[in-house]
Amino acid sequence: MMYFGGSSNVTLLFDFWSVHEPGGMVLSVFVVLLLTVIYELLKVWKNTLAQRPTHPSAPSIPAAFSTSPPCFSPENSPTLTNSPSETSLTPTENTATTAVITPTLNSWLLHSLLTGLHIVQVVLGYILMLCVMSYNIWIFLGVIVGSLLGYFFAFPLLAHVN
């Protein structure tokens, strides 16, 4: 049938997940609800991991542009040979180190973890889509409520992780 029905007789995904009584339907809806909550939590966890910096940031102000004011003393008094225009043209040694972005073991491990989480998320998404395509209203409501609960619980957890 290609329309939503409220029967307690449904086969979900595989032949062995065949429901024929109301108790089995309640259990199936609960399992689908939990899978949907896990799906939402994985989405948030993956996004949280992806937003973390993988390398230390380089200093944003080069050493040549120091923010401290110049110090004038009798030894450093401006003269014709040591005028500001002359000193500004002399090359200065850049003591700032620039971080070279190189793939490290940690960044590859993070990328591998993100890839694994993405695959699990895609598989769970397709499983939930196929559950909804059983056109059973109770299973559909289980996916909707699971998505609601997963989103509701995942984002406060995200605030505590960051």
Automatic annotation (TrEMBL):
Keywords annotated in UniProt: Copper, Copper transport, Ion transport, Membrane, Transmembrane, Transmembrane helix, Transport
Domain of life: Eukaryota
GO molecular function: copper ion transmembrane transporter activity
UniProt cross-references to InterPro entries, sorted A to Z: Cop_transporter
Spans through the membrane: 23-42, 108-129, 135-159
Region (Disordered): 68-93
Membrane topology category: Multi-pass membrane protein
Keyword Membrane on entry: yes
Pfam families found in the cross-reference section: Ctr (PF04145)
Coiled coil residues, start to end: none
Subcellular location per the Swiss-Prot or TrEMBL entry: Late endosome membrane; Membrane
Gene Ontology CC, one term: late endosome membrane
Family: Belongs to the copper transporter (Ctr) (TC 1.A.56) family. SLC31A subfamily.
Annotated protein name in UniProt: Copper transport protein
Organism: Pygocentrus nattereri
Gene: SLC31A2
